[in-house]
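Sat 14:20. Reprocessing the chain from the morning session after the first attempt stalled halfway. Input below, unchanged.
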Amino acid sequence: MKLPMLSEQDKAAEIRRLYYSTTRQTIHKDLARALDLLKSMQGEPERERVAVYMDGLAQMRADWSGRKHRRSSKSEVRSKKKSF
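Finished this time. Tokens:
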């Protein structure tokens, strides 16, 4: 299968499409695809234009992954020290 060469505008459009169409089930695949597209972009101005979509995809992945490792607040740390 022959893959077409995408222009910088096509790459940016694909990243935007991934951002708006991603779901909890596809976020890891979509983010990996968006990162590949971002890495293949030549100009810094083009990368800056899609940065908001990349940040949004990363935030969705963090939100949907259900991270259980969050940083303890200072009050939680103090209360744990007092219990010893």
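Residues 8-82 form one domain.
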